[in-house]
Amino acid sequence: MIPSSTYRLQLGPDMTFEHVAEIADYLAALGVGAVYASPVLAATPGSTHGYDVVDPTIASPALGGEDARMRLVGELQELELGLVIDIVPNHMGIADPPANPWWWDVLANGRSSDYASYFDIDWEVGPLLVPVLGSDSLDDLSIVDGELRYFEHRFPIAEGTSGGTAQEVHERQHYRLVNWRRANSELNYRRFFDITTLAAVRVEDPEVFEATHSAVLRWISNLEVTGLRIDHPDGLANPGEYLRRLRAAAPSAWLVVEKILGADEVLPSTWPVHGTTGYDKLRLVCGLFIDPAGEAGFSSLAGDQDLVAMELDRKRWVAENLLRAEVRRISRLGVDESEVISFLPRFPVYRSYVADGVAANLPSGTIAEQMLAQPGGELTSRVEQTAAMVMAKGVEDTTFYRYNRFVALNEVGSDPGRFGVPVSEFHTKMAEAVETSMTTLSTHDTKRSEDVRARLAVLSEIPAEFADLVRRWTAKAGLSEPTLNLLAWQTIVGAWPISESRLQAYLEKASREAKIATSWTDRNAEFDAEVAAWPARVLAELGEEIDEFVSQIRAAGWSNSLGQKVIQLAMPGVPDVYQGTELWDYSLVDPDNRRPVDFELRRQILAEAEETLPPIDESGAAKLHIVSRILRLRWENPELFTGYAPITASGPAADHLVGFARNGLIALATRLPLGLARSGGWRDTKVKLDGPWTDSLVSGYAGSNPDNHSREVLVSELFATYPVAVLVQGDA
Fold first, then answer.
1. CA–CA distance, 721 with 463 (Å, rounded to integer)
2. Cα separation of 33 and 432, whole Å?
3. Whether the Cβ atoms of residue 524 and residue 518 lie closer than 8 Å to each other
4. Of 48, 223, 593, 634, which has the fewest Cβ atoms less than 10 A away?
């Protein structure tokens, strides 16, 4: 069942199955079509995100277990809400071996384990390496209760191998505990990116598919789950084959894949899915509100960095260092290691899909020739899997923290080299858009929230003014590393007001991901101390000045926020609202964007908006009102949201309007609000309407005048209340 919309919830200790049931009535009142939840299967004890599944056969005990899950299902069904869940077919959590019965058995029994083939392990190179030691020493190993112990880490002892010292027992096992620094170059099991505590599973094996999907497929068959979000399909050996097997097992489910597409890339046509999770649409919507005229000013401020060269350099570094173990595994298939390192960074997108006939993005070379000759072979799948890892770690997780020209563009699925999206490109893409694909503006994986990006977009209209501020602020209290310094000033403006602790945590992550002056594995104590002290210093010395500047652009940021939200919610696709973002939300990358949400406040604001039309102010009530109005329209009148045709204005400020018509619905939004104000406002800019049309955002309120527009109408009249409008055909 395809939902009218979804609302993404991050489940965890503060949002269990019971908590979701308690807010389900609020979500229904908001107009949501389905709850869209992070993974719900049993995860590593203490997990805050659920992506480290340890037992895929049961509902998470930490979230309330099976009984609580069924109570939630009953509540959602009573409210006619669907349930979409996030599943993780690529890997399982192994940080706590006793919690994962399959992994524990593999450690205990090696290749003879019933689960040895479940994990993607290269047994030919020797015992299974487990990189948990702080050094090369085994002195801290002990035997406790018939298990090997390394501080808090527990490992099994194979039958018949006990006796002697802990070190002697260790040498008899099917695994070897090794220095954690050896993982990147020597690991012999595939992992999720460079995370050694997430071990890849061989879901391409029908037995493994059945074992890992039995519970989820049962829930779908029982109509307890209506849709699935497939996490990281690029990590699979053959995503197309997996998705076809999943579709056959769940023919009625709404399936969307977390596939990060290049700007000009499309999903393989052979994948039987309803679409993506929406990063491709995020790029388009955000780009509409960025002024391309600001590019030169920001390029100059950043020192004219070479994005293409930086991406290639960082991808090669990742292949040579972080993922050397994966490169060596490919080389064991008969390919020279240096050739693999040269080949992987040249993928222009995350990966090719040679087995599905999608090889246009495959770099040239002998490796490519071998892949094309054996599209279903191991070499092909391992190269493609590793290419996706190289892209993710080299670009998304490194370059996007270094190339800081204009960080509103440094987003998952976006291209920082494309400074904004022309309205014509947006309309062309929308005319081809799939109605069943998800659209989004914020997710648990975005680098910054939609409202941060909306405010940053305002800066593209005033590049010289912002550059002057950055130079003055830097002279007073700058960071010594230039790229982090530029990122920091944009971050503090985009997320203002921000606490010292939040800014400190973000800059620690950003500086270490960038790997310029410090990193997670090779710390620079002096620089780390500088970064840690910077937020307190800046807030004390420049807080008032920053606040004054943000106050000057805040209203324009709100205009952009409402504009991109209207576009996202009304455009073709199934819109997703990330938890809490129905109000203003100025969150940064996780874990900042996983903070608890005050649903009681939102419930109260929604009730008040039923009685009084909210103004645009710091409460964010106007955004919540607009979100609710459009979601309810989608729920009650789905026929309105079909078809697509651009709407254009005429007059002096025509370029500041973006809009489109659906089937009896028109969505309109303001672009580049500062430039609009500088040019004298809308003046006699008009839109031609064949009516009657009623603005659904303002109709129904005492004293409001929604006007039955049935003529050529002034845009200033349409936007008398809000800088956006959602017109529905018919009288008020």
1. 29
2. 24
3. yes
4. 223
Query: Residues 6 or more apart from 72 whose CB is under 8 A from it?
Result: 17, 18, 20, 21, 24, 64, 83
Residue 223, token pair as written in the block: 């109509």
Expressed in angstroms, the distance from the first to the final Cα of the chain is 32
CA distance 259 to 9: 20
Q: What value does the mean pLDDT of the chain take?
A: 97
Neighbouring C-alpha atoms within 13 Å toward the C-beta of 274: 25
Phi, psi of 395 (to 5 degrees): -100, -65
Average pLDDT over residues 576-588: 98
How far is C-alpha 442 from the chain's CA centre?
7
Domain range for 163 is 97-200
Q: Let me know if residue 437 belongs to a domain.
A: no
Of the candidates 253, 277, 301, which is a domain's last residue? 277
Categorize the per-residue pLDDT at 706 as very low, low, confident or very high, splitting at 50, 70 and 90. low
Token output for 425: 């490109």
Output the six-digit token pair for 672.
């580049």
Say whether both 69 and 127 belong to one domain. Answer: no
pLDDT tens, position by position, 587-625: 999 999 999 999 999 999 999 999 999 999 999 999 999
Global pTM exceeds 0.90:
yes
Q: Which two tokens stand for residue 343?
A: 């080949």
Q: Are 385 and 236 in contact (CB under 8 A)?
A: yes
**Position 640 pLDDT exceeds 60:** yes
The larger pLDDT score, comparing residue 707 to residue 430, is at 430
Return the exposure string of 143-166: e unless at least 16 CB atoms fall within 10 Å of the residue's CB, then b.
beeeebebeebbbbbbeebeeeeb
Residue that finishes a domain, picked among 401, 435, 455:
401
* Whether the Cβ atoms of residue 383 and residue 190 lie closer than 8 Å to each other: no
String of DSSP letters for 500-552: HHHHHHHHHHHHHHHTSS--SSS--HHHHHHHHHHHHHHHHHHHHHHHHHHHH
Cis peptide before 614 (omega within 30 of 0): no
Which segments of 253-314 are extended strands (E)? 254-257, 275-276
Q: What is the pLDDT of residues 519-548, one digit of tens each?
A: 999 999 999 999 999 999 999 999 999 999
